[in-house]
């Protein structure tokens, strides 16, 4: 069957034809392709077309798809059974690895997705502080928990408004929303509500409004604010963890959060998430403490095997330096192509995470990102797709490079970009 035929059939059976909204290409228009297989830097669709993939399953595939070491680890684990519902040794190795690589994490709890990790982390923040308000940032995504599907209410800083039907107003009221990269706004909010704030959750490099790094001193400022007001600083490193540096954004910027959440890379492509932090906080989680959180499949042996194989691969000397250097080559190359074609364009990048914007401005905020030319991005996306390059199908998603992307892949990507921009100039 063709991509189109499959999509028609899928739409009859699943909402929007997909199991996660962004896959449906609603933002960029058109129809998604259906992947038949993936290897290294490439996806192949059901019609046999190959794409250089800059999405990498939305982040996990940092060593490329179907890496033999990860696959073999999974194959070995599968031989011993798929799920035990009892403790298994691989969970300890995973916890040892995470706590060693991320020094702010003394103890960790494995879960099955990024969403579960962030929901659990804010429950812990509330349980540990006895407070109920949570602070988040406009444009940051922390999964689909009720507390996160909230935007700032008009005018007032005080009450959040649900961004999805089904999120109770009462839940949204407990989420305060701030503009990212605006420290003065955070100071004003804490001055008014500090005593009620259980925790502040942030993507330390924003990756869900395209890629927006924190301004110099911003994360330090938030750290100081949380400490002063007794609120927990939660770094949502689901995207940045083991991506912008081996120790995540907290290592890259030298900040110690109270709690961290992880996903994507730690599962090596399997459904895995985790949250962790200081021992005295994590010891409040059941059954060590009273704050409840659980999971039938959490710490699953096959998922642990995939994640551990991945975490071994990324610890190889020079891995992150090489990846960051190549990401720079790609971003600078695309900038040079756009400049050459006279197209207003800018890029952001941190480690192996990058963002492309159709604007001349340096993008430092959600307002900047939404002011960029999304129609131009959508045309670029489709032009690249046609030429066998798969970028994230939304102007508000970060791009990811893997160690499997070769010089030839980068050169082919730049050539596709040149042709695309030239064609759309007409
Ligand atoms: N936090 C961040 C920063 C994310 O980027 C995502 C997903 N893209 C999530 C949480 C939610 O993770 P999941 O989709 O695994 O539930």
Description:
The protein is an alpha/beta fold. It has 2 domains: 3-63 and 317-425, Aspartate Aminotransferase, domain 1; 68-313, Type I PLP-dependent aspartate aminotransferase-like (Major domain) (Aspartate Aminotransferase, domain 2). The protein has 14 helices and 16 strands. Helix 2 runs antiparallel to helix 10 (301-313). It starts with a helix and ends with a helix. The structure holds 4'-deoxy-4'-aminopyridoxal-5'-phosphate. 4'-deoxy-4'-aminopyridoxal-5'-phosphate is lined by residues 58, 113-115, 118, 141-143, 203, 207-208, 236, 238-239, 263, 273. Its main location: cytoplasm. InterPro entries: 4pyrrol_synth_GluAld_NH2Trfase, Aminotrans_3, Aminotrans_3_PPA_site, PyrdxlP-dep_Trfase, PyrdxlP-dep_Trfase_major, PyrdxlP-dep_Trfase_small. Homodimer. One of its GO terms (molecular function) is pyridoxal phosphate binding.
- Beta fraction: 15-25%
Morphology call = globular
The CATH fourth-level homologous superfamily of the largest domain: Type I PLP-dependent aspartate aminotransferase-like (Major domain)
CATH topology-level name of the largest domain: Aspartate Aminotransferase, domain 2
Write the CATH architecture name of the largest domain: 3-Layer(aba) Sandwich
Largest sheet: 7 strands, mixed
Structural class: alpha/beta
What ranges have pLDDT less than 50 throughout 5 or more consecutive residues? none
End-to-end CA span = 34 Å
Q: Could you name the CATH class of the largest domain?
A: Alpha Beta
Domain count: 2
Number of contiguous helices: 14
Order of helices and strands: HEEEHHEHEEEHEHEHEHEEHHHEEHHEEH
Query: How many beta-strand elements?
Result: 16
Family: Belongs to the class-III pyridoxal-phosphate-dependent aminotransferase family. HemL subfamily.
Protein name: Glutamate-1-semialdehyde 2,1-aminomutase
Organism: Dyella marensis
InterPro entries: 4pyrrol_synth_GluAld_NH2Trfase (IPR004639), Aminotrans_3 (IPR005814), Aminotrans_3_PPA_site (IPR049704), PyrdxlP-dep_Trfase (IPR015424), PyrdxlP-dep_Trfase_major (IPR015421), PyrdxlP-dep_Trfase_small (IPR015422)
């Amino acid at each position: 069957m063709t991509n189109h035929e499959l999509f028609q059939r899928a739409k009859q059976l699943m909402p929007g034809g997909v199991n996660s909204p962004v896959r449906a290409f609603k933002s960029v228009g058109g129809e998604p392709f259906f992947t038949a297989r993936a290897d290294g830097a490439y996806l192949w669709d059901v019609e046999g077309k190959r794409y250089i993939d800059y999405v990498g399953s939305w982040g996990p595939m940092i060593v490329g798809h179907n890496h033999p070491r990860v696959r073999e680890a999974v194959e070995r684990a599968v031989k011993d059974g798929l799920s035990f519902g009892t403790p298994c040794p691989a969970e300890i190795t995973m916890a040892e690895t995470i706590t060693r690589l991320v020094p702010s994490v003394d103890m960790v709890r494995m879960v099955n997705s990024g969403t579960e990790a962030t929901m659990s982390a804010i429950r812990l923040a509330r349980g540990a502080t006895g407070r109920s308000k949570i602070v988040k940032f406009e444009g940051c995504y922390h999964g689909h928990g009720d507390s996160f599907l909230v935007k700032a209410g008009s005018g007032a800083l005080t009450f959040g408004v649900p961004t999805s039907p089904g999120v109770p107003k009462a839940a949204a009221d407990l989420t305060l929303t701030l503009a990212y990269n605006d420290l003065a706004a955070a100071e004003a909010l804490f001055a008014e509500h500090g005593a009620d704030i259980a925790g502040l959750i942030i993507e330390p490099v924003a990756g869900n409004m395209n890629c927006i790094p924190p301004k110099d001193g911003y994360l330090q400022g938030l750290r100081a604010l949380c400490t002063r007001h007794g609120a927990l600083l939660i770094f949502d490193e689901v995207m940045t963890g083991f991506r912008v540096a081996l120790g995540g954004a907290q290592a890259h910027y030298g900040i110690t959060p109270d709690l961290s959440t992880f996903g994507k890379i730690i599962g090596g492509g399997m459904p895995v998430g985790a949250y962790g932090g200081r021992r005295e906080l994590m010891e409040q989680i059941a059954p060590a403490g009273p704050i409840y959180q659980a999971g039938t499949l959490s710490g699953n042996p096959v998922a642990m095997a995939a994640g551990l194989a991945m975490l071994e691969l990324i610890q190889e000397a020079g891995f992150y330096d090489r990846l960051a250097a190549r990401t720079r080559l790609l971003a600078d190359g695309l900038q040079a192509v756009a400049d050459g074609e006279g197209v207003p364009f800018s890029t952001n990048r941190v480690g192996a995470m990058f963002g492309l914007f159709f604007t001349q401005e340096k993008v430092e905020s959600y307002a900047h990102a939404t002011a960029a030319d999304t129609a131009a991005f959508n045309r670029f996306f489709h032009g690249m797709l046609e030429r066998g390059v798969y970028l994230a199908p939304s102007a508000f998603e970060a791009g990811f490079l893997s160690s499997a992307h070769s010089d030839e892949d980068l050169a082919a990507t730049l050539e596709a970009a040149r042709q695309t921009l030239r064609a759309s100039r007409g």
